[in-house]
Amino acid sequence: MMNGYDCFLIALGARIKKFRVDRGWTQHYVVQHTDFYDSHWRKIERGKTMSLQTLYKIARLYEVHISDLVDGIEMDCSGNDGNQPHELPSQ
Known about the structure:
mainly alpha; 434 Repressor (Amino-terminal Domain)
């Protein structure tokens, strides 16, 4: 079962791919014009990896704010629309 972070990464990867496709860019184009490796970019779009630094680089690539990439993405796998607050796990 996936946790909330895994679901978030998958949705974020799909959004990053949509931004690329909407611009008419291929994965090859992105790799040729950035310092991302082909395999790393594929993992990003599949939601397998993401760091804050990577997210920053992608926002700069697309000339958008980081918030444009992440706003509205569901934070869990339960179908929550992202508008409901989530309780933090007790420590």
